[in-house]
UniProtKB/TrEMBL annotation:
Keywords: Hydrolase, Protein phosphatase
Family membership noted in the UniProt record: Belongs to the protein-tyrosine phosphatase family. Non-receptor class CDC14 subfamily.
Domain of life: Eukaryota
Pfam families hit by this protein: DSPn, Tc-R-P
PANTHER family membership: TYROSINE SPECIFIC PROTEIN PHOSPHATASE AND DUAL SPECIFICITY PROTEIN PHOSPHATASE
Designated name of the protein: protein-tyrosine-phosphatase
Domain Tyrosine specific protein phosphatases: residue ranges: 248-310
Organism: Guillardia theta (strain CCMP2712) (Cryptophyte)
């Protein structure tokens, strides 16, 4: 914001102290919001929707503080590339959400920094990234979600988001009004909620059906059905792209279900994110990259490996009015062994991250 809000990168705490002493007319400030991302693997962001909201409130308070009315505000971040990239994302998100700037205008604000000042975001794997999303993709995803009413800054209930997000509760996110993406129940894991607890949540939140994308051995679908919920199995292998018949069945279910659908795979990230992204792209015309960006802001870790390239190929097919590509096409084909290795890697990383985040159950109401 010219004349009021600025961003800088400091080498260390010593530089920050020197800058404060040198520029008494400037208010330097920072936070831990840009350090808040908890990685699965080599991923480092973007930070989630709760952090975005809390950061916007934080900056807004500074701008409205009468004691700072006549001073320039400079937000600073450290030289660590992931931290400074998330800081840029958060400041850009503030401009998109609160100031209502366009994504392109916001992205230009960061073009004056050195070429490699900010690094692109990668998927939640340990692999060398073959696909990334940019700050601009993230700003576009946020803008799209605001335009359609999926995210309203003035009515966003951050505590409810955090409560559902907590792995000690449901590890779930309303990525859009049509879908609740969540980590799949597992009767062999005592740290997950029971089917009865899931059913109570789903009924209270207007959910009419559950779609399971992983192995049917994890729980008995009849348990959900006995609670008056419809249940569908659409299995395909972990960390792979969905076959055409699965996509067709998925779209048919979405068309037939008037309520919100709870959808999960093992971790509720790759297969779940891919099918949700296809629905968003098909029904709303979003691009693949901004869709992936929005999903990751809302539910970190969504869409993994070749699923990313597949969604881009699907976007191009949708633009041309052609059938969606077959999974056998080389650009996004995952051989069985590679998919199995990647699936194991992601599953173990997800479980480890989940355990690190486990906290006492929050007492907030559903």
């Amino acid at each position: 914001m010219p004349g009021k809000l600025y961003f800088t990168i400091h080498k260390n705490e010593g530089q920050t102290k020197l800058e404060i002493l040198k520029h008494r007319d400037i208010f330097f400030f920072s936070s831990t919001h840009h350090e808040a991302y908890i990685p699965f693997c080599h991923d480092f962001g973007p930070v989630n929707l709760a952090e975005v909201y809390l950061f916007c409130k934080f900056v807004e308070e500074k701008l409205l503080d009468p004691r700072l009315k006549s001073r320039k505000l400079v937000y600073y971040a450290e030289k660590d590339p992931p931290y400074r990239t998330n800081a840029a994302f958060l400041l850009g998100a503030f401009l998109v959400i609160v100031q209502r700037w366009s994504p392109d205008r916001v992205a230009k604000c960061f073009s004056g920094f050195e070429k490699n000042a900010f690094i692109p975001f990668q998927d939640a794997t340990y692999e060398i990234p073959s696909f990334t999303i940019s700050l601009l993709d993230c700003f576009k995803g946020l803008r799209n979600a605001m335009t359609i009413g999926w995210f309203n800054y003035h009515s966003f209930e951050v505590q409810k988001y955090q409560w559902l997000d907590n792995p000690a509760n449901f590890d779930a996110h309303f990525v859009c009004p049509k879908f609740l993406a969540f980590r799949g129940p597992n009767n062999s894991d005592t740290r997950t909620r029971t089917i009865q607890e899931y059913s109570a949540l789903f009924k209270k939140r207007g959910i009419s059906a559950i779609i399971r994308l992983n192995e049917p051995t994890t729980y008995d679908r009849e348990e959900f059905i006995s609670h008056g919920l419809r249940h569908y199995d659409l299995y395909f292998d972990d960390c792979t792209t969905p076959p055409r018949d699965i996509i067709d069945k998925f779209f048919d279910i979405c068309d037939s279900e008037n309520g919100t659908i709870a959808i999960h795979c093992l971790a509720g990230l790759g297969r779940t994110g891919t099918l949700v992204a296809l629905w968003v792209m098909k029904n709303l015309g979003w691009g693949a990259r901004e869709t992936i960006a929005w999903l990751r802001i809302n539910r970190p870790g969504s869409v993994i490996g070749k699923q990313q390239q597949y969604l881009v190929a699907c976007e191009q097919a949708m633009i041309r009015g052609e059938p969606l590509p077959e999974v056998e096409e080389e650009d996004f084909k995952s051989d069985a062994l590679s998919a199995k290795v990647l699936g194991k890697q992601v599953s173990e990383a997800s479980s480890k991250r989940r355990l690190s985040l486990m906290a006492p159950h929050l007492s907030s109401a559903l």
